[in-house]
Amino acid sequence: MVHVTKKDDCLTFEIQGWHKLWAFENQITVRQDQITKAYQDETEIKFWQGFRCPGTEIPGLITAGTYYQNGKNFWDVCDKSKSIIVELQNHTFKKLFIEVPNTLETLALIQEFHYQT
Description:
By secondary structure, this protein is mostly beta strands. It has helices at 19-23, 103-114; strands at residues 2-7, 10-15, 27-31, 35-39, 51-58, 62-68, 72-77, 83-88, 95-99. The protein has one domain (2-114). The chain has 2 helices and 9 strands, in the order ββαβββββββα. The strands form 2 sheets. A 6-stranded mixed beta sheet has the order 4-8-9-7-6-5. A 3-stranded antiparallel beta sheet has the order 1-2-3. β5 and β6 form a beta hairpin. The longest helix has 12 residues, at 103-114. The mean pLDDT is 90.
């Protein structure tokens, strides 16, 4: 699970609990100008995430860590119905596939943050 917070011109995606160990990440910081869009689409959360490096995958239970498929992507997903996708530009990661506590609130926070002037 990932908790998203806003501070100044950055969003922090903080990985929670044991997921830090499975994902090999504590947090990911993204500037406002690096976000291209955020959305929910369960069809993009597929069986094969790409080549894992480093990460954890237990099919049907958890996918966490860094995966390479059409670029470098970060995953932290157990329940795809509670997951969102954040597309980035000029960042280490191309996409973040993350499970969040409340998809609608998190998407609203990211959209509001992205379109701030």
